[in-house]
Amino acid sequence: MKKLVGSLKYRNLRYTQNHPLRIPRVSLLIEFLKAMGLIEEQEIIQSREATEEELLLYHTEDYLRALEESDRCMCVKDRYREKYNIGTYENPVSPAMWRGSLLATGSSVQAVEVFLEGGVAFNPAGGMHHAYPSRANGFCFINDPAVSIEFLKKKGFKKILYIDLDAHHCDAIQESYYQDDSVFVLSLHQSPEYAFPFKSGFAHEIGRGRGKGYNMNVPLPKGIKDGEYLYALEESLKIVKEIFSPDVYILQLGTDSLKEDYLSKFELSNAGFLKAFDMVRDMLGEGIYLGGGGYHPIALARAWALIWCRISGREIPSKINSEARQVLLSVNFEEFDEDIDRTYMYDYLLDRSDGEPPRGEVKRLIERLKALFLL
Ligand SMILES: [Zn+2]
């Protein structure tokens, strides 16, 4: 049972104009996959909204009521803005805030349920890793990965590995499980020295109390390409496997690590992104797959289409057919840097990968992590 949890409803649950997340994402992916002939209707599980009980596994009731109330009027009280960080430029009031988050979070629970029934599922709307129990943060309102982790705990899982490949550090996830030895958090991301969330995601943050040694950050320099990213991922996974044998893992697949993404300084090709996915699966078996950040809609649709091909066991077609090209061309999105030729994105599905060896800086980081975790 290989399933994509999704819905075309997201089309009408967008962020406000000028927000990086105003773009079509899940609906575009579904339309693109259909046009490419890469998905059958019966492979799609229609997303459902999260229940109150599921939301309360992680979030506070007062925060949920503030989101719900703000959704009703599409407005925000000053005290809510201050207390919950909603109604800001970063986390605006829009249909995405409450309705979209409910759907994305319900979908993550659905993906977990498929996994518990012995199947495999991908929820591309998930992976909103910045939301705190009672505070919006980094475009995220409801933390569906954390709800999923809590859901797994409730189902009796004692050792849960959370792997985050988004270009940004999963600050809220780290904080929530920092003193917890039943959840190992591994995150590869742009160093907070130069990227959001700036305050956390450093290598020395390894957990506290019982959770000490169960939080690994791999903060990487600007301009990371496939070869050194895969080196860092393989080495960090090897360390994790030496100290933690998970019952289950959740993989967050933010596509803002791709070279086309204008909100990050990473330079991965989608072939490198796919190899990262393959590497995790080869080393750990099947997991629960969630989306994440990603602000270039075309890059995102191509990369997640590749992930779906792998999950569903399909051959990867080399060319993008004319119907699918029309789907991509119909997206209302202006290239941030018009000088870069991106026409390849509309012709081919899979990029060429580069095998550049790791820089000394990245090798030294891995040595440091080995010393922190294994000695
Ligand atoms: Zn991100």
TrEMBL record:
GO terms for molecular function: histone deacetylase activity. Pathway: Ketone degradation; acetoin degradation. It comes from the Bacteria. It holds the Pfam family Hist_deacetyl. GO terms for biological process: acetoin catabolic process; epigenetic regulation of gene expression. Residues 19-308 form the Histone deacetylase domain. SUPFAM superfamilies: Arginase/deacetylase (SSF52768). Keywords: Acetoin catabolism. Signal peptide: none annotated. InterPro entries: AcuC (IPR003085), HDACs (IPR000286), His_deacetylse_dom (IPR023801), His_deacetylse_dom_sf (IPR037138), Ureohydrolase_dom_sf (IPR023696). Belongs to the histone deacetylase family. This is Acetoin utilization protein AcuC.
